[in-house]
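Hi R.,

Here's the input for the zinc ion complex you asked about:
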Amino acid sequence: MYRNQWISFGRNRHYMGTDGAAYTGVKTVGTNLHLFDVRNNQRGLLRTDNAWVTYYGKQYFPNAQGNLYRNQFISFGPTVKYYLQADATKATGIFKAIDNKYYYANEEKGINNGKIVDLGDINNTNPINVKKAVTWVFFTNNGYSPASIAGIMGNIAAESSWKEDITELGGNQEGIGLIQWSYTRKTEFLNYAKSVGKPWTDFKTQLDYLLLEMEGSESWRFKPRTRDRYPAPYNYFGLPNGITDFKKLNDFVLATEIFCVNYESPATLDSLPKRIEYAHQDFSYFIPLIFLDPGHGGQDSGAYYAGIKESTINLSIAKMVKQDLLNLGYRVVMSREDDKDVSLLDRSKMANEIDAKTKIFVSIHNNAAPSSSSVNGIETYYYQYYPEYPPEINQEKHNDPVRLEESRKLAEYIQNEMVVNTGAKNRGVFRNTFAVLRESKMPAILLEGGFMTNPTELSKLITPSYQRKLANGIVTGIQKYFGRI
Ligand SMILES: [Zn+2]
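And here is the predicted structure with zinc ion in place:
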C-alpha cells in the first residue's frame, strides 16, 4: 500500500495519506496547499487547472503544478487583481493582506468581480477608518458623487458612530444599525438580512440594504417634502428629481442636510451642525488632494529672461490648474498663492502635513538652457535617489517603490498631455533628486513647461492662451492618473 507519497497515472497525480487513501479536498503536503478533486470518477485527482476552481462555494486558483496560490495578489491585465488568503481562498469584501494593509475586493452588482481596491494608507488599527473607506468605495462604485457620499457618512457618524451592531432606544422603538433603522423600515431591513442569509449586524449587508432602500422603497424621501415640525427652510425641503439629484450633488453641506432632514428625519434638527461637521471631515479626507507648487517666488525669481520672471509664469499656470481641479471636485492646496518666498523644505513640509487619504505633489516650473537658445520643449521629472543627497525629512518614504512607481505614472500622464495640448517638443520624463521630489512623502513630479532661453518658446509662455494649454495638459494628466478619464 502507498502511504504518505505522491503517485502518478500518466499526467494524473494523487497523494496517498497515512491511511493509504487518496487525499480529497484542500490538503497540505509539505509546505504547499493543494486541491484534490472529490468527484467520484476523479476522486483524489490533483487539480492543476491554472484557472479558478470553485470548491464548496470558495474560489481557489491552482497553478499548473497543482499548488494553490496563497498569501499573494495575482493579476490579470493592468487593472483587475485578486488576493488569495492564507487558506488559499479568494478574498472578498474587506480583508487584510500579507503587507498588513487593508483592501477591499469589490463585488458590487457583479461589476469588476473580485477587483481589488487599495484602501490606502488608512490607519489600519482603527476599524472606523476601514469602514469609512469601504463606504466611500461602495458608493463611488454605485455612481455617487464625493459630496453625496460625505453627506451619507456624516449622518452615519451621528446616528451610530459607525457601530453597525448598535441598538438604541429612540422614542418607543429600537433603532438598529448604521443609520438606525426603526419602525417598519427596521422590520424590512431585518427581513432583507434574513433573505440574503446574513446577520443584520453585517456591515456590508447594511450598505447593500441602504443603497437598495435609497434607490427603491424610500427614494421618494429625497423629493421635496413638507415637514411642519422643522424650522424654515427645512419645513419644505428636498430635491426636484429626488435621489437622481442627490447622487450628483457637489455640495456636501446640502447633501448632509437632505440626508438628515429627508431621509433620517430625526425628531429635531439639533444634531444637524454635528452631522455637517462629520461630513466635512470625511469629504476633506477622502477626496484626492492635489498639492500645487508654483516654483520659486519672492526674492527667488527662478529663470529670468527678457525681463520676465519664471516665478510669475509658474504661478499663473498653477492658478489656472487650481481652478480647473476645484471645478472637477478635487481638493487643492498651493505652496504659494502670490509672489513670496517659500523654502524648498517648507513646500514639502506643507504637503506632508495635510491629512488626506490620497495626495499628489505637482511642482510647476519653466526651464532655461543659458548656453543654447535653440533648446526647447517640455520635460517632467520624478525622484532619483543619489546617496550624496540624503533626505532631510523623508527618510521613510523617499525611495519607497510604490511612491516611485506612482510618481512615474503621474509624470508620464502629465508629460504626454502637456505635449498633446501644446504641440511642443516632447523631451521626455527624467529622474533627479530635486528637493521637493525627495522630501515629499507622496507621489511627486516636477514639470518644466518650456524654455525661457528660447525666444520663440518664451513668446508663447508669456501668453495666457499658451499657459492655458499647459494647464489643460496638467489637469488632463491628473484626471488620467486618477482614472477619471
Ligand atoms: Zn524653476
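One thing worth noting: DSSP finds 13 helices and 23 strands in the chain.

Cheers,
M.
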